[in-house]
């Protein structure tokens, strides 16, 4: 014996824009109606009911405040499966394409440092002013030690274990006091090589 569809009382539909569907069947009960959420065996009828409910939900959504809309979106996303969340991600990436990405946020640390190793000393000092994270990367000793050593500017002391930016500070100090040229250009024509982030 097959189970009968779930039903709801008329009073349960009060306060909604549910329009009672009049049936031409003589045996239709007057006090109950099939629930609009109950899957039907008839595929076309089921699709029609789904579209009607979607229209109703979207109508409510248009009337809600921004906070209410975000609450609904949060509830839906937390209930979604991985495949559904991936669909949302792809849809968002298509709707809101990311045209600019901070490479230091997506690349491993050693690759970010490798990219920065191609920057000039002046560009490294400029990069240090972008953000705290960029400053931390652009002042790493691995970027400045070789630049100092190749010019004979050896650090006169051994940096402490947690000392930060020792070779970079030493490089800036040597450039400021040196009367020679830097990369074949006079320091006076390049302006001061400083880092305003300090």
UniProtKB/TrEMBL annotation:
The species this protein was found in: Dissostichus eleginoides (Patagonian toothfish)
SMART domains: FBOX
A Pfam family that the UniProt record links to this protein: F-box-like
Region (Disordered): 179-198
Ranges of compositional bias, category Polar residues: 179-192
Protein name: Epithelial cell-transforming sequence 2 oncolike
Domain of life: Eukaryota
F-box domain boundaries: 107-147
InterPro entries: F-box-like_dom_sf, F-box_dom, GEF_Ubiquitin-Prot_Reg
SUPFAM superfamilies from the UniProt entry: F-box domain (SSF81383)
């Amino acid at each position: 014996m097959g189970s009968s569809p779930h039903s709801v009382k008329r009073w349960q539909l009060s306060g909604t824009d549910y329009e009672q569907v009049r049936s031409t069947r003589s045996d239709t009960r007057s006090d109950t109606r099939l629930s609009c959420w109950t899957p039907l065996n008839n595929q076309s009828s089921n699709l029609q009911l789904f579209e009607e409910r979607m229209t109703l939900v979207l109508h409510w959504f248009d009337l809600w405040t921004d906070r209410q809309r975000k609450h609904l979106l949060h509830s839906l996303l937390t209930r979604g499966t991985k495949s559904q969340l991936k669909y949302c991600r792809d849809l968002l990436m298509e709707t809101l394409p990311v045209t600019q990405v901070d490479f230091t946020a997506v690349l491993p640390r050693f690759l970010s440092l490798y990219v920065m190793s191609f920057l000039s000393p002046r560009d490294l000092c400029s990069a240090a002013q972008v953000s705290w994270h960029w400053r931390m990367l652009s002042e790493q000793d691995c970027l400045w030690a070789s630049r100092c050593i190749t010019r004979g500017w050896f650090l006169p002391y051994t940096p402490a274990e947690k000392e930060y930016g020792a070779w970079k500070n030493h490089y800036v100090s040597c450039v400021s006091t040196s009367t020679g040229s830097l990369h074949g250009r006079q320091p006076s024509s390049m302006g001061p090589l400083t880092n305003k982030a300090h």
